[in-house]
Amino acid sequence: MVLTLSAFGGILVCFWCYYEGESMVEVVLSENDRLDWALKKFRRKMLRSGRFKDMKKKRYYEKPSEARKRKAAAARRRNARARRRRRNR
């Protein structure tokens, strides 16, 4: 994971690379744009792309058995929510 702020000919480019075949999130600024605006836009793009969730999930190693349990619990929650919605209609 790399967070880079680079200046190319008066244009500031802020991008984040994820080296597992994912595309990068990029914010391009002109000379007059503010850095705090760029970071806010960058954060918004990261949230919408789901990268923060992936980073949080990959912070620690998860055993395959734990991953199966987590996925099964999520499926149970989804199914229960769908049953409640169908019942209330």
Q: What distance separates the N and C termini? A: 46 Å
Structural class category: alpha+beta
Number of domains: 2
Mean pLDDT: 78
Q: Could you estimate the helical fraction of the residues in percent?
A: 40-55%
Number of helices: 3
Say how many strands there are. 3
| Rg of Cα set | 19 Å
Gross morphology is elongated
Q: Can you write the helix and strand succession as a string?
A: EEEHHH
Low-confidence spans: pLDDT under 50, at least 5 residues? Answer: 8-12
Q: Which percent band covers the strand fraction?
A: 15-25%
Largest sheet: 3 strands, antiparallel
Order of strands, main sheet, comes to 1-2-3
Secondary-structure map:
Blueprint: E1 2-8, E2 11-17, E3 25-29, H1 35-49, H2 51-57, H3 64-88
Antiparallel strand pairs: 1-2, 2-3
Question: How would you characterize the overall build of this protein?
Answer:
This protein has two domains: about 1-60, no CATH class; about 60-89. The protein contains three helices and three strands; from the N terminus they run βββααα. It has helices spanning about 35-50, 50-55, 65-89; strands at about 1-10, 10-15, 25-30. It has a three-stranded antiparallel β-sheet, with helices on one face. A hairpin with a 2-residue loop joins β1 (about 1-10) and β2.
